[in-house]
Structures
1.
Amino acid sequence: MALPLPPNVSERDFRAAMSEMSRVVGPDWTFTSEADVMLYRDSYSILWGESEERLASAAVAPANVEQVQQVVRIANRYRIPLYPISTGRNLTYGGSAPTLSGSIVVDLKRMNRILAVDEKRHFAVVEPGVSYFDLYNYIKEHKLKVMLDVPDPGWGSPIGNSLDHGVGYTMAPFRDHFGAHCGMEVVTAEGEVLRTGMGALPGADSWQDCRYSAGASVDGLLAQSNFGIVTKMGFWLMPLPETYFTGTVTVPRYQDLTAMVEEVSYLEDSFLIGYPTYGSPVGGGFMGPPPALAQLLRNGWPSIEQLEDYVRSAGRPAWSVRLNFYGPEETVRANWAAAKRRFAQAIPGAAFEDGIFLKLPVAAEMEPNLDQTIKQALGIPALEIFMAVARNPMTDRDPAAGHADFFAIVPRKATALWEAARTMFEAYREMGLPAQHDPFTTPLCFYSRAFMVITIVPTWRDAEKNRRSRDLLTKVMDRCGEHGFAPYRTSPAFQEHLVGKYSYGNNALLKFQQRLKSGIDPNGILAPGRYGVWPANSRRSGA
Amino acid sequence: MLQGEQMLNRRTLLKLGTASLAATLSQVPGRALADNGLAGSPRRAVCDLRFEEGRAFASAMIGRGVPVSDVAGGIPDLWYRDLRAALLHRRLAFIGLTDRTALFTLEELARDVGMRVGGRTDHTIDHHGMASHRTTGSSAWRRAAGRLGPERGFGADIAALLAAPGAYDISPAAQKYTGPFAAAGSVTLVSWWIA
């Protein structure tokens, strides 16, 4: 497979640029051979092997901020697009492959220092090449009394993950990873270095204490965007709790979900619980609906009365939610008691079950034996999740390469959840496919103030199968868009289609971003096209 | 080294593997570029003791003095606390017989140290215990692995193949490959080398 040249760049200029970059980062860290550059292919690409698959022209791995600056200046002179990655493991959302074919990947893996972990003020400062595993191991080795919030899998970078609005599993302030950041250092498209928040004040020691400087805050512009290369970032960390406890609530009727969600929201928004895990003892989850429910669904989406009848005949509660509590034992037990009181008052027939109780930190020898969901709740990074989707032994017969997904943002109320599930159910039926969703679909709660409802499609090393996956995901995206549901991120194959849904005010948001891009990066060298944002000099820009 | 009827379990394997690894690292003179392919004895083997063929592979490797690690201990610990540091110091080929998930994660992680899958053979074991093998890699690797038979015990044969002196070039065809279809009820394993 031939490597693409950067768009509108001659081979001679490309070779000259690579030669200059090699003198900056060193020949050992300049990758131009097909064998080396193909390592940056997106393993999960839904466009694998097709002309639209995004491929890099080369890659460079700078060692420090100064080298990043020089690489950026060289790229500007030659008008060559760059695509920065931290660990490049954001599979499903493009991974290490650029948004625009022919870009040079700027692999920040050599910038892997943990610059600070403060266990009194509860923050960390890291470089892009630091992974969650690195940070976790550092905290353990130094016996620091802070707890991470990690995504699953944990092989990515806190910087990379947060800049793509990645999420985790603990308390609300920490599981929105970008929301938990405080301060960043950025190399701009012109090769300057800026620091945000209190970092812009030379000599300030409060860079990780206060997000804001005087004047406009620009941090949000660096997430899911192409406005700069982040070279350092601070994160607020949770103080290591003394204990961790789980309690499960079940409710008997289908419609009890409304009150259940309201009570859980109260507890979340009051910071009394962490990530709530919703379930349904009578739904099928990822295994698909039980036979009686499947029978009901043959005639389309059932009525509420039919669903209540189904639940009664199943003889089990309609819904469950597992609540996570963190803190001293006395407060954890008191918060659980308060939660039970509130649920009992709000929902007749609510039942309760104590779960596990752990003193923290857990002993090192216990960690490997912890259930995956407990590891997530305790900020312990893992890689076991790869057994759950594409590489699940149950689906290993016809091995998929990975998956593409659709995490629709849905209002945090039962009626919206049901509407989203029904919309996806009907989208699948339109495509003639077995539905992934049913009336007992449960939400994910990564963002504490919103629900997410997920669709997953496999990706393959087969163009025809990928086309079908793309068609399905596009159908779901379109149908959900009609109902006001859309995901908060997606792979490059769908980014322009997705941002087209965020069209309020005649696409005012995108136009605003385009104008910023034109001013900040007029030569369009930083990840052009990411989430539909092109500089004005690009024919693809609408600005 | 395994002797007599010594049972191969994770504790035994780690004890033997650690001792061998320590000896290996102490001999490393310094940073060097990766070998271009698999030539000579590998410096580390990765196995999965859950599987009979994985145990056979591990035994054979230990018998050849190659340090062995079991993925059941967790790929994160294997990579972040062990392999990565060793490979950053010197990129020496490592080999394995594991399930596809383990290879997938190690292949992705290996990019951190500039290494890649050079060749692989997918093994599908049917419910009768008979194995079929599909090799992806250079012609030399395909010829060598093409000698594998369908009977039990191919784990040891793969170990012999990978541990013996020989030169196999890296083949891009073996990279980011998902593996062949396998019938229901089969067990799928993959042997591989990363260099």
2.
Amino acid sequence: MEILKQLQKIDGKPDLESLPDLLPYARFMGFEVDIKGNEVTARMPYKRDLIGNARLPALHGGTIGALLEWTAVVQLLFDTECARLPKTIGITVNYLRSGRPVDTFARALVSKHGRRVANVQVFAWQDDRDRPIASANGNFLLQPA
Amino acid sequence: MNPAKNRALALHEDGVRLESPLVNEPPPDDSTDEGPGLVETPHALAVGMVFLESDGDEAILRVPYRKDLVGDPDTGVLHGGVITAALDHVCGAACKKLDLPPEQSQIATLDLRIDYMRSAVAGRDLTVAARCTRQTRTIAFMRGVAWDDDRNDPVATCTGTFMLGSTLPPKDA
């Protein structure tokens, strides 16, 4: 059964807070989604398996990139009617500050979406939203409903 | 016990240890370690990354296919985040293969751009390789590729820049 059809609808929007339960990698990473009104925030709770450099310690850059990509997809699912999960065409991640071993949050903004392609900007932070640890922008292929 | 832990090799800041017996790297300087023995990269172990033998300046590693790393259960394909993590890790490993003096040995990713050429195929292991195309006093420019069956038909390609000798904040900051 198609994944997105399994999501319940809340006020006409898919229940994206339940999406991580349906995707193995999201469960593996511990991703969470929090929706308040039309604000979508993704969270990556800290756990030791996310560490890239145990000496510092610092989160692995790949986990931050993965969180940013995940957040972009969730935002697209929220903003557009998708039959299938959007596919990443290309993404550029900027690593701004070292990720400390604490929870990481991310928000995305869909800068533009046509029928097939959307451009999304994402940023991630930990203690202070005004001091992001990373940002990304990517183009995604939409598979509209 | 994660079976990958037996095979996966630690990425130590003094160099990458490969399975090849031809590598003559000196053993890591344990006196600078804060943990028991080698510094490990937990995320690489958790994902199941395994370094492969390679010549020259290229670093190669493999991520065996695993169902818990799947992004979309309708397709069974590994999530893009696995590719991102593998490419970031192999680019870092390729940086470590450069002849870096101690003050440059602490590296940090500045940016990473990944282009997804085609969908990976469900069930196939992912292999990634990277090398440095240009090294300056402070920056290493990297190029990487990810494939499943055929390196000439890649799943993704990447370019990245890494800072050499980054001044990261002290541990208790």
